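User: Quick sanity check before I run a bigger batch. Here is a single chain. Can you write out its predicted 3D structure?
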Amino acid sequence: MIGAPVTNTSPGGSVPPPAASAAAPYVPPIASTPLPYVPPAANVPPITAYPPPAQTGSGVKILFIVLGVIAFLGLLLAGSCFYVAYRVKQKATEFKAEMGGNAPRYTGSRDACAKLSETEAGEALGQKVTAVESRGSMSCIYHFGQAGQKQVPVEYTWQGGTIAMKLSHGAMSQISGTDTFTTVPGIGDEAYLAPANSALLMRKGDVMVNIDMRVADLNAEAAKAMARKIAGRL
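Assistant: Done. Predicted structure follows.
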């Protein structure tokens, strides 16, 4: 019947004890692995960067010796350059003086045809001059003969005539190998007849006059007479 007390029906009438619960299996504790011993950090002083050792006395001496040699060579080279420049300048001055570069400049009139008139040219040529042709200040041409077919060009070098005279004279000597110029005394400062009587060169001061004798087949005496008249006006 529901609600009736449970009676022990086992023999002897005693109530058996309750069944014991199953015990949990034994798990031994896990042994921990000890950590390695780390000693405390020592107080290490910081590393200081020291400058390299100073050069020894011998190294400084070598440096000064090298610098001294370089300075001496520089002075020697500069002195050589100054000496060479001085010698070049001296030679240039000597050459200029030798060539007549120091001659005073001509300051008079530079009218070429005014240095020898038409009448004076005719007297020197022994024939009447039919026309006088001016070619600027550097040249004057005198026409004579039948219908003025013959002509005598007279050219002037107003500045540097001394050098021009020497160069002309020297060039012909170099070409021919001998001095083929004939000296004409008594006209200007110096005068020469060129080889084969091709021209008469006359210098007065720093002016050179070139009388071309080729075109008119001019004789030397006529050219000399013209040169004397011109020299008297320079």
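Residues 6-12 have pLDDT under 50 and may be disordered.

User: Great, the batch can go ahead then.
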